[in-house]
Amino acid sequence: MLALIAVAVLLAAAGAVVAAIALSQSETSQAADFSALAGAEVAVEVQARACSAAATVAARSEVTLQSCVVAGLDVQVVVVRPVLGPGPGQVAATARAGPP
Q1: Less packed terminus of the chain by CB within 10 Å, N or C?
Q2: pTM exceeds 0.85, yes or no
Q3: Distance between CA 64 and CA 79 in Å, rounded?
Q4: What number of other Cβ atoms are within 10 A of residue 25's Cβ?
Q5: Helix (H) or strand (E) holding 80
Q6: How many domains does the chain have?
Q7: 39 and 65 in contact (C-beta within 8 Å)?
Q8: Residues 39 and 53: beta-carbon distance below 8 Å
Q9: In the beta sheet, which residues pair with residue 76?
Q10: What is the pLDDT of residues 28-51, one digit of tens each?
Q11: Domain range for 63
């Protein structure tokens, strides 16, 4: 009986870790989207400032801008966020924004 309780507790803990990582991944993806959109909006007027705008939005979203590439009016970003606890040390997300 004690073994079954231990297994149940272990499974619940594993489920909590997976849920936390999934939530962090979702938030990181949203932050990447917002960062790319901010960069693309600025790129319309001054391409040289697009990555700076993306980095500002990333920082406000509590992620780190790992890379930013501007190609014309398209901006592609990669952002990362640390994940506490067991599992991957960080989650990453990529987003692209620009005219259709």
Answers
A1: C
A2: no
A3: 5
A4: 16
A5: strand 74-82
A6: 1
A7: no
A8: yes
A9: 69, 96
A10: 999 999 999 999 999 999 999 999
A11: 2-97
